[in-house]
Design brief:
The complex is a heterodimer of chains A (469) and B (387).
Chain A lengths: L2 E12 L39 H13 L3 E2 L2 E2 L2 E4 L9 E4 L6 E8 L2 E12 L3 E5 L4 E5 L6 E7 L6 H17 L10 E11 L9 E6 L2 H20 L8 E6 L4 E4 L12 E2 L6 E2 L2 H9 L5 H10 L4 H8 L2 H12 L4 H19 L8 H12 L5 H14 L3 H8 L7 H14 L1 H8 L5 H12 L6 H13 L1
Parallel strand pairs in A: 12-13
Antiparallel strand pairs in A: 1-10, 1-11, 2-6, 3-16, 4-5, 4-15, 6-7, 7-10, 8-9, 11-12, 13-14
Chain B lengths: L5 E2 L6 E4 L26 H8 L4 E5 L18 H7 L5 E6 L3 H9 L2 E4 L19 E6 L2 H11 L27 E5 H6 L2 H16 L3 E5 L4 H20 L17 H12 L2 H14 L5 H24 L2 E4 L15 H8 L4 H6 L3 E4 L2 E4 L5 H15 L1
The chains are: A alpha+beta (469), B alpha/beta (387).
Chain lengths: 469, 387
């Protein structure tokens, strides 16, 4: 029998706010020392009251607009109770009764994936287990950092669809400035079951908790599929609805202790937080502040004269876009900028094993400016770019130090050409004997003689002329 | 002479109860759980008073987390009212969670105002039931209560439920002539003869001033009492869950793992009434009971608000007992939850709705939102009558 997967995702994303959800502590706590980013409010001290971060609401609404959701203009915060040392007040403020966004859709390939809801909640802290002293330490830096949880409907039918969706979601969230989606800041719970193809019944569901790597998510789904099908076909085990965790070392899922999952969270409306009314004018304001989507952005690049395929690559990555937009805004020619980013920068990134483009737009702009105005050669430009990537050098200073200067007078070029011919008699003889490939060797020698400077076209012309003599 | 649990300044003029935080001064909310807990900041109300030149004299006892009526901490609960009565302080700040300072004021014969919900910041109150508790003022006169309330009331951005008005004026000289005052029939009938006599005396004083006094049936009062107990217990359970022995406060010495640390610390540090409230509050929020208990209590709150607003559109104020008796009744601790529950019949209407309430001359007055000044004017009439 053939089986199909039925998958629903709960995706947690950290919002790109300047401060935490209910206090004024810095929002992005990950980089600080343990407990550097804590105040009496997010440490759950008695006497403190939560005050909602307006920006978090706006970012959540933006996410909803992007995913074609209905925005609940009356939205509330609720308390979810459970005891764990990383949760200082023993309750999490979340949205249980009136989530901010509901009923959205995302196009994944040919299929439409439904979004059940998006709700805002605060993150918990972190426990650090110290084996040396057999103690547990608590770090509250992450406590109360704002998250949104994007809950999909059980509409995915393959791990590929899941990964496509997540990549699209990540790009879109970065694009709109909703989340930086840094390493580990996008976490998924995967609800998964299998059923005979064509059936409209749902199978027994397992939930794999707290995954962040796309590759691991794919492997975990594939593992679960095999486990479920084996259980149904070969009676290898009795499937039960349960929460599981993915073991990255053993490459399989394991059930989590029942105790961690069988809680009664005793949700109730938080009396300290008044219902939030997103009136028409506030909603219009948020809509107006929405940046272009990846598709719109790609189209804009095509309109600027960039090839469709290149435009799509640029538009798929928020960082590439922001560098591209900035450099173009500095007056560089769009096609030239696209080529520098997609060819030269990406080649450096591959060489250095970097995933996100991290270059000051001013520096890239200056390199392109120098090359396009023939101040330096493209070859020299590439060398400067490499030095910027590796040592973040100052462009003009580096060019001076290296003696890069494309504006070499013809006399100097001619001298170099003559020197190269004199130094490579064998290659010259080969060329004259009909081996055209030998031209390259002599041209290379010429370039070395000029230290990469000089206009290649001029050099080529002079060399051809001299060799013809 | 009534004692402080912590004396701060012999020449101070304002006493503050132990659920209100004062920076670096032990603030325990009457609980062993918070013994030696020294907060990092002071309550907004305390900051406003000190900024205006008032000095805090010391901290007065409360029943554990303000839940108590009498029980475990005994008559010390009325320490603030006693200090005010004997003239040791000008006024006292007391958190009104379930009517305890209203009862104390009625029994000691002083004035207490529980202001309209949202007019005084709750920032710096050790929270039990956020949707109803308010800092109020105990004083010897309506004018003094109005003076102190005028200092502490007004918008505070640190409290999300704080109303936007920056400053409130309390006129205690409103004319009583022509006012309509309704005596709450069900509560009058439920009180002891000694309390009825105080209500009768107040009614007589108002009639003499040209007010019209009549009995009024409010309706649903037992339901309001139950609904408030549900909401208060549920919120208190949730707010007290932060006291787990991990971060501050009491920690048991006997534990081998985190569960034993939680259970041991809470079992050893919480008193009987607090535990009973936590059990009750957990139950009404549990799966399967939420709709029948908590959600229904929220509906009763809405009905109570609408009903009382309708009545208060016809009457300028309601006159009712603050407590069934004129003296505290002692009882064994295992009866505490039930006793407090029964006694809140008189105080729950103002607690669940957030309406202002003033106690004076042993009786309680409840008015419409923002009519705190009118209630204090009515209290002033009774003060003059007594004098």
């Amino acid at each position: 029998m053939k089986y199909e997967l039925v998958i629903g995702l709960e995706t947690h994303v950290e919002l790109a706010t300047d401060s935490k959800l209910f206090c004024s502590c810095g929002g992005h706590a990950a980089a600080d020392e343990p407990n550097d980013c804590v105040c009496p409010a997010c440490a759950g001290m008695p006497g403190m009251l939560p005050v909602t971060n307006k920006h978090a609401i706006e970012l959540a609404v933006k996410a909803g607009l992007m995913l074609n959701c209905k925005i609940n203009q009356y939205t509330t915060f609720d308390k979810k109770s459970y005891y764990y040392p990383d949760l200082p007040s023993a309750y999490q403020i979340t949205q249980w009764f009136n989530p901010v966004c509901v009923e959205g859709t995302v196009q994944v390939g040919e299929r439409e994936i439904g979004i059940k809801q998006i709700h805002i909640e605060e993150d918990a802290g972190k426990l650090v287990h110290d084996d040396a002293t057999n103690t547990s330490l608590v770090d509250y830096n992450r406590t109360s950092v704002p998250l949104i949880e994007i809950v999909s409907k059980p509409d995915f039918r393959s791990s590929d669809e899941v990964i496509t969706y997540l990549k699209k979601l990540k790009a879109a969230l970065q694009f709109a400035g909703i989340s930086e989606c840094e390493e580990g800041a996008m976490r998924c719970d995967v609800n998964i079951s299998v059923r005979p193809e064509g059936s409209d019944q749902l199978g027994v569901r397992s939930e794999i908790k707290n995954m962040s790597s796309f590759a691991e998510i794919k492997d975990a789904i594939e593992f679960e599929k095999v486990r479920h099908v084996d259980a149904i076909e070969r009676r290898t085990e009795m499937l039960v609805q349960e929460t599981r965790r993915w073991d990255e070392v053993k490459r399989r899922t394991f059930p989590m202790r029942n105790k961690e999952t069988a809680a009664d969270y005793r949700y109730f409306p938080d009396p300290n937080l008044m219902p939030i009314i997103i009136d028409d004018s506030w909603l219009a304001e948020i809509k107006a502040s929405m940046p272009a989507t990846a598709e719109e952005k790609g189209q804009k690049y095509v309109d600027m004269g960039i090839a469709t395929k290149e435009a799509a690559v640029l538009a798929s990555d928020a960082k590439l876009c922001s560098v591209f937009d900035a450099v173009v805004a500095m007056g560089r020619e769009p096609k030239s900028v696209a080529s520098w980013i997609l060819t030269e920068c990406m080649s450096r990134m591959r060489y250095l094993g970097i995933e996100t483009l991290n270059i000051a737009p001013e520096k890239l702009s200056r390199i392109i400016e120098l090359v396009d105005s023939s101040e330096i050669t493209r070859a020299a430009g590439k060398k400067v770019l490499a030095a910027v990537f590796e040592n973040n050098v100052d462009v003009d200073k580096y060019c001076d130090e290296q003696g890069f200067n494309a504006k070499v007078d013809e006399g100097a070029v001619l001298a170099a050409v003559k020197a190269a011919i004199a130094a490579n008699p064998a290659a010259v003889a080969d060329f004259k004997g009909g081996k055209e490939k030998a031209f390259g060797a002599i041209f290379g020698a010429c370039m070395r003689e000029l230290k990469g400077n000089g206009d290649p076209a001029v050099i080529r012309a002079l060399l051809t002329k001299e060799l013809g003599n | 002479m009534a004692k402080y649990i912590t004396e701060i300044n012999k020449n101070g003029t304002i006493a503050v109860d132990d659920t209100i935080l004062i920076k670096d001064v032990a603030s325990t909310a009457g609980s062993k759980m918070l013994q030696n807990f020294k907060p990092l900041f002071s309550a907004e109300a305390v900051e406003r008073l000190t900024a205006k030149g008032y000095t805090i004299s010391g901290k007065t006892a409360v029943g554990e987390f303000g839940l108590d009526l009498y029980g475990e901490t005994g008559s010390e609960i009325s320490a603030a009212a006693k200090l005010v009565k004997e003239g040791s302080v000008k006024a006292a700040l007391n958190v009104d969670l379930n009517g305890a300072p209203r009862r104390a004021a009625a029994l000691e014969g002083v004035t207490f105002v529980k202001p309209t919900y949202g007019t005084v910041s709750r920032y710096g109150v050790i929270a039990a039931a956020c949707s109803g508790e308010q800092i109020g003022v105990t004083a010897n006169s309506a004018d003094t209560a109005a003076e102190v309330l005028g200092v502490i009331a007004g918008h505070d951005a640190k409290d999300g439920t704080s109303l936007k008005t920056e400053k409130y004026e309390y006129n205690t000289n409103a004319s009583v002539k022509g006012m309509k005052i309704g005596i709450v029939k069900e509560l009058y009938d439920a009180a002891d003869q000694s309390v009825k006599a105080k209500i009768d005396a107040a009614a007589k004083a108002y009639t003499k001033q040209g007010a019209e006094v009549a009995f009024v049936v409010v309706g649903n009062l037992p339901e309001i009492k139950t609904a408030w107990t549900i909401l208060m217990s549920a919120e208190t359970t949730n707010n007290l869950s932060r006291f787990d022995g991990v971060k501050y406060g009491y920690r048991t010495e006997k534990y081998k793992n985190i569960d034993e640390l939680y259970v041991g610390s809470r079992t050893e540090a919480f008193g009987f009434l607090t535990k009973a409230t936590i059990i009750y509050g957990s139950d009404v929020l549990s799966k399967g009971k939420y709709d029948a208990c908590y959600d229904k209590a929220l509906k009763i709150r809405r009905i109570a608000v609408e009903n009382l607003k309708t009545i208060l559109s016809k009457y300028n104020a309601l006159l009712l007992p603050a407590y069934a008796k004129t003296e505290y009744e002692t009882y064994p601790e295992e009866e505490a939850f039930e006793k407090v529950y029964e006694a809140s019949l008189f105080t729950a209407p103002a607690s669940i709705t957030g309406l202002p309430a003033v106690v004076s001359a042993g009786v309680q007055l409840v008015g419409d939102y923002f009519c705190d000044g009118k209630l204090l004017s009515l209290a002033k009439v009774l003060e003059k009558e007594e004098a």
